[in-house]
Amino acid sequence: MTSWQVITADRHTTYAGVALELRDEFTGRIATGPVSLSLDTQDGAIWRPTNVKPTRNAGGIFLYAGLGRRLDPAITPMFKVRIRIDAAYYRPAFQATDDAIEFDVPTYNHAVPPVISPLVPEVVLMWPTVSYPFAAHIRRIHGRVIDIAGNPLADAQIEADGVERVMTDETGAFALPLRWQAPTAVVNVAVIHARSGLTANRVFDLPADLSGNQDITVT
């Protein structure tokens, strides 16, 4: 019979320098569909792409395990990374103003733990785009957000009566769900394109404005 002996000196602890929970704004659950995360490291004023990919645990959390492990953490106690998110059905909420979300990552090794305690997952709200698979019974206003020259605007935030929020895709298109409004309601829609500072407010009448595409011009 073979007996096993645990040698505690050979145990190594791996920390997740970054952990992300991508949360569906519409359902409040973990975001679904194809998602791709890209990690860049900061080198002075330059962001350099890497091939570092996260793992995803059973709870749907993306973990960058081992990020920050160094031979000598004292040389570089901390470094900065940013993560870009590409999702089939969403735009991350931060994309209204930024292309990526940034993190300070503490370094460590098997003898020296990170100077910052392991983080709880960062919750990233994911706003539905026009490609989101809404159920057939969900009423929606379809359209585009454009500027006064007719150019489509990506990453514009759209709210219906302050209770539904979506974001335009790269073509400026959106699909705005209406779960809480009455069948003949008047819907107040606010649009903010934070990157340009342009805004708009529109009033839609149901059910008439559910048909066709409704362009909204921000100024």
What does this structure look like?
The chain has 219 residues and is mainly beta. The protein folds into two domains: 8-128, Sandwich (Immunoglobulin-like); 140-217, Carboxypeptidase-like, regulatory domain (Immunoglobulin-like). It has no helices and 16 strands. It has a five-stranded mixed beta sheet, with no helix packed on it. Strands 3-2-6-8 form a four-stranded antiparallel beta sheet, with no helix packed on it. The radius of gyration is 22 Å and the shape is elongated.
Helix-strand makeup class: mainly beta
- Taken together, the total number of domains comes to 2
> What's the level 1 CATH class of the largest domain?
Mainly Beta
Q: What is the H/E string?
A: EEEEEEEEEEEEEEEE
Number of helices: 0
Rg, rounded, reads 22 Å
Distance between the termini: 79 Å
**Coarse morphology:** elongated
The overall strand count is 16
* Rounded mean pLDDT score: 91
Major pleated sheet: 5 strands, mixed
